[in-house]
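Query structure, 180 tokens:
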């Protein structure tokens, strides 16, 4: 992503840690946890790779179409499973945002803030509004879960940790969209 190196490395660390935890959640005994964790791990590692500061590593030109294809496929899978609940629709929006960012990065490798005009492009603004709302809503849902306690659940099955991961990925998505 375009932007300062220090926040970029913080995003890389946050997203990689989240992706790693989601991989560990794939070993859960709860089927719904396993299903959601795979897509979230893909999103976490994809965001980590995309957030590597451009001043440190400029990926080859073929990287961005590959990102678009991978997250386009993830979006199609989320669309197919959307009948399972609103969480799958969130995965669809997240995959769409990743495809959008990959396309923007592919067509504009130099640092920029807008696409030739003034202000924020419409799709970037819509995604920023969605993810900002998602972060605020997720943060509110996280507080009661942490207070309520979870008894003797294994740490990979704890719902508040899964919510915290989703919250951190939402925050990272807002940060990445702001640098776009």
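Result returned for the query:
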């Amino acid at each position: 992503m375009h932007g300062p190196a220090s926040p970029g490395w913080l995003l890389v660390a946050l997203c990689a840690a989240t992706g790693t935890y989601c991989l560990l959640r794939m070993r859960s005994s709860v089927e719904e946890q396993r299903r959601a964790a795979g897509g979230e791990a893909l999103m976490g590692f994809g965001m980590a790779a995309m957030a590597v500061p451009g001043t440190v590593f400029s990926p080859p030109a073929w990287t961005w179409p590959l990102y678009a294809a991978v997250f386009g496929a993830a979006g199609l899978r989320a669309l197919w499973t959307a009948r399972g609940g609103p969480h799958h629709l969130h995965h669809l929006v997240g995959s769409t945002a990743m495809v959008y960012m990959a396309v923007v990065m592919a067509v504009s490798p130099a640092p920029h803030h807008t696409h030739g005009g003034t202000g924020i492009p419409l799709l970037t603004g819509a995604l920023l509004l969605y993810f900002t709302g998602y972060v605020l809503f997720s943060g509110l849902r996280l507080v009661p879960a942490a207070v309520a306690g979870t008894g003797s659940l294994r740490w990979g099955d704890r719902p508040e940790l899964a919510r915290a991961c989703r919250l951190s990925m939402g925050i990272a998505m807002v940060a990445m969209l702001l640098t776009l």
